[in-house]
Hints:
It comes from Streptodolium elevatio. The structure is a single chain. With about 230 residues, the protein is α/β, with parallel strands linked by helices. It is about 45% helix and about 15% strand. It has a single domain, classed as Rossmann fold (3-Layer(aba) Sandwich), CATH 3.40.50.720. Strand 1, helix 1 and strand 2 (about 30-35) form a beta-alpha-beta unit. The longest helix is centred in the middle third of the chain and has 29 residues, at about 90-115.
Amino acid sequence: MSRSVLVTGGNRGIGLAVARRLGAGGDRVAVTYRSGPPPEGLFGVRCDVQDAAAVDDAFDKVEAAQGPVEVLVTSAGITNDTLLIRMSEDDFTSVVDTNLTGTYRVVRRAARHLMRAKAGRVVVISSTAAMSGVVGQVNYAASKAGLIGMARSLARELAPRGVTVNVVAPGLTDTDMAAALTQGQRDKIVGQIPLGRMATADEVAVTVAFLASAEAAYITGVVIPVDGGMAMGH
Length: 234
């Protein structure tokens, strides 16, 4: 059956790849975006997840267009990299508020229907930075680690209502975020990856699509790294 899907941050990178894959599978897919035009062929809703009122408004528009959200993928996120001694309080809190608190806002809004329906899927996009740490990403790694604790707590809360909550933790992925790194930075990270290359956004999307599928009905509270082996052992 075609499901109502919402992908936050679905206008580029991993979020867009997830949205297109789920749409190709027959789902009705909406995406949120903060700036620029909405992606072609998808129902887009402008939304800044730092704004609780904007989150409510986005859900209202999605529900009016395609029904209550049955599958939620939280991919909206930002980086603001610098060493701790140079990191301002705003550098830290803006990343945490977008990546971690923004996810709380979105999942809380979606949970109303999911719990009443006693069915649904939530897939949270974290990062291997949450497990291994990255120099210059104290704010980003903290936010992404927080998502794992949040998701596992939600998995326990929502499991009695038939809702699964899982985490996908990509490593270095060929997106705009990776393109912002210097070639030397990319080469250094790739040198630490056993498979010796970056992931593609679609490789991450395949994993998300599985966790959102009927076949994954008995999987909840897990963290799946999609990172070429970089985080093995964590």
